[in-house]
From TrEMBL:
<dbReference type="GO" id="GO:0003677">
    <property type="term" value="F:DNA binding"/>
</dbReference>
<keyword id="KW-0175">Coiled coil</keyword>
<keyword id="KW-0805">Transcription regulation</keyword>
<feature type="domain" description="Transcription elongation factor GreA/GreB N-terminal">
    <location>
        <begin position="6"/>
        <end position="76"/>
    </location>
</feature>
<dbReference type="GO" id="GO:0032784">
    <property type="term" value="P:regulation of DNA-templated transcription elongation"/>
</dbReference>
<dbReference type="Pfam" id="PF03449">
    <property type="entry name" value="GreA_GreB_N"/>
</dbReference>
<dbReference type="InterPro" id="IPR036953">
    <property type="entry name" value="GreA/GreB_C_sf"/>
</dbReference>
<keyword id="KW-0804">Transcription</keyword>
<dbReference type="InterPro" id="IPR018151">
    <property type="entry name" value="TF_GreA/GreB_CS"/>
</dbReference>
<dbReference type="GO" id="GO:0070063">
    <property type="term" value="F:RNA polymerase binding"/>
</dbReference>
<keyword id="KW-0251">Elongation factor</keyword>
<comment type="function">
    <text>Necessary for efficient RNA polymerase transcription elongation past template-encoded arresting sites. The arresting sites in DNA have the property of trapping a certain fraction of elongating RNA polymerases that pass through, resulting in locked ternary complexes. Cleavage of the nascent transcript by cleavage factors such as GreA or GreB allows the resumption of elongation from the new 3'terminus. GreA releases sequences of 2 to 3 nucleotides.</text>
</comment>
<protein>
    <recommendedName>
        <fullName>Transcription elongation factor GreA</fullName>
    </recommendedName>
</protein>
<dbReference type="InterPro" id="IPR006359">
    <property type="entry name" value="Tscrpt_elong_fac_GreA"/>
</dbReference>
<dbReference type="InterPro" id="IPR001437">
    <property type="entry name" value="Tscrpt_elong_fac_GreA/B_C"/>
</dbReference>
<feature type="domain" description="Transcription elongation factor GreA/GreB C-terminal">
    <location>
        <begin position="84"/>
        <end position="157"/>
    </location>
</feature>
<dbReference type="GO" id="GO:0003746">
    <property type="term" value="F:translation elongation factor activity"/>
</dbReference>
């Protein structure tokens, strides 16, 4: 299996490390305690508390492995040196949707940092890919699952 590099901000890297530390420490201990308590109830063959705790343990261990792999392949982008002359990973771009005459703002981030509620979109999403490389004043047509969107790029910031 080819290992893919994961482009991420320092903030995103710190969040992944924090999650990993939490899962390896307090979360593992909590689940071990739940398993021990469920075993103390007796027969584990029909013990739903035991089954639930073991399932959660398997999920947590899988997530730990996933985080370790992501951290191993992480490439931190330096947001200090971002060129705001064109849309790129790490920039915040303000666009005008030309069909609906509405302004929107997107932060272009790596796939592990996506948060639609915060308008953080992936550089590999259709809109992210479509905006990257364009400059203020450019009009961009982007194919999305529901059709085509047309944006005018209004500003690009760090």
């Amino acid at each position: 299996m080819k290992e893919e590099r994961i482009v991420i901000s320092q903030e995103g890297l710190d969040k992944l490390k924090e999650e990993l530390q939490h899962l390896r420490g307090p979360k593992r201990k909590e689940i071990a305690k739940r398993i021990k308590e469920a075993r103390a109830l007796g027969d584990i063959s029909e013990n739903s508390e035991y089954d639930d705790a073991k399932n959660e343990q398997a999920f947590i261990e899988g997530r730990i492995r996933e985080l370790e792999q992501m951290l191993k392949n992480a490439e931190v982008i330096n947001t200090e040196n971002i060129d705001t002359g064109k849309v790129s990973l790490g920039t915040t771009v303000k666009v005008k949707d030309l069909e609906f005459d509405e302004e929107e703002e997107f932060k272009i981030v790596g796939p592990t940092e996506v948060d639609p509620d915060e308008n953080r979109i992936s550089n590999v999403s259709p809109i992210g890919k479509g905006l990257i490389g364009h400059k203020v004043g450019d009009t961009v047509e982007i194919e999305v699952p529901v059709g085509t969107v047309k944006f005018e790029i209004l500003s690009i910031e760090k």
